Amino acid sequence: MAAMVNCSYAADQATGIKEGVTSPLPLNGMVAAVKNGKLAFVSDNGRFVFQGTVYDTWSQKNIESLRDAELAYKTIDVKKTKFQVDDLNPLTVGSGDKTVIIFTDPFCPSCHVLLDDLKKVEGYTFKIVYVPLMGDESSKVVRAMQCIKDRESAQDVMLGQAKPQSIVGKAEVPACDTSPIAKRIVSAHMFGIKGVPFMIRDDGLIRLGYDKGELNNWLSAPGI
């Protein structure tokens, strides 16, 4: 969530507010809290209370309740942002009416499990975005995925059918355009992605992490 905060600090009120009902926010170190019917935004150590207006520029509305805070924390309404996943040159799997965006890394074990499961799901289009989040070797593989001449080998790696290192050092297309990789890194930072797999459902519901066999249940679960 991109947020603009108009705030004042009231450290002496933090203890009382933290005793009320709270909801996390997609802002590092912040929660929304209610005390005596009033909404405030509190640092996670309880020291600072931010009183005023928080405006979510993605959902285009003020955060005025714990429900609003919960929605901001658990969803990303991609349709209301300027984000275009196809600008990141994702791997597309499936051709269903509903689109699911998946950020992944070539060395992420649970991501490979997810890839195996999504191949069995119908009715969805999966946009798989490889981001080099796990170090230098990931960076080499993600570049090779983008630049290698042998596109079939690149796709085998992206689909988890070949080892990531198998395409590193192979012949690349001349003047390879790596700008989609830079856009992926910027997008991952924008969405606050700190681990993979990170999924965004068609209705905006997000999920971090994956265990085998859970995809269908998550896709069919009601929204929040």
From TrEMBL:
Residue ranges of domain Thioredoxin-like fold in the record: 94-210
Signal peptide feature range: none
Residue span, Disulphide bond isomerase DsbC/G N-terminal domain: 21-63
Highest taxon in the source lineage: Bacteria
Localisation per UniProt entry: Periplasm
GO molecular function annotation: isomerase activity
UniProt KW Disulfide bond keyword: yes
GO cellular component: periplasmic space
A Pfam family it matches: DsbC_N
This protein's UniProt keywords: Disulfide bond, Isomerase, Periplasm, Redox-active center, Signal
Keyword tRNA processing in record: no
Location (main, coarse): periplasm
Protein's job: Required for disulfide bond formation in some periplasmic proteins. Acts by transferring its disulfide bond to other proteins and is reduced in the process.
PANTHER family: THIOL:DISULFIDE INTERCHANGE PROTEIN DSBC, THIOL:DISULFIDE INTERCHANGE PROTEIN DSBC-RELATED
Family (UniProt): Belongs to the thioredoxin family. DsbC subfamily.
Protein name as annotated: Thiol:disulfide interchange protein
Organism from which the protein derives: Pseudomonas aeruginosa
